[in-house]
Design goal:
Structural class: alpha+beta
Strand order of the largest sheet: 1-2-3
Distance between the termini: 20 Å
Largest sheet: 3 strands, antiparallel
Helix content: 40-55%
Shape: flat
Radius of gyration: 14 Å
Low-confidence stretches: none
Order of helices and strands: HHEEEHH
Length: 105
């Protein structure tokens, strides 16, 4: 979502608010839009129980040779095994592998 064209993103945001799957799910379009701006700026997304309670994760885009986002590389774990800070510390490794994958697309 963070890399959608503005028109496509606006259409999606117009479908909200959405049903929550956990107490931490983002359901409001304005909140999601702000989160997506942050994701674009930092180049990765973090997740703390937003989809599954007790699961933390991170995602980075995989871009093809033209710079278009074609996929994502993610990592997730139960919070009982990895903290959000530990997952965040893995983001540079994810970005490195995402870049390597992107070079062969």
């Amino acid at each position: 979502l963070a890399n959608q064209e503005p028109e496509q993103l606006a259409k999606f945001l117009a479908t909200g608010p959405w049903e929550a799957t956990t107490d931490f799910t983002v359901t409001e379009p304005k909140v999601l839009a702000e989160r997506l701006r942050k994701v674009r700026a930092q180049g990765h997304a973090m997740n703390d129980s937003e989809y599954i309670s007790g699961v933390v994760g991170a995602a980075v885009p995989i871009r093809n040779k033209e710079g278009q986002v074609t996929a994502a590389l993610t990592i997730s774990a139960p919070r009982s095994r990895r903290s959000l800070d530990e997952i965040s510390a893995m983001v540079p490794i994810l970005k490195n592998y995402a870049d390597r994958i992107g070079r062969i697309l």
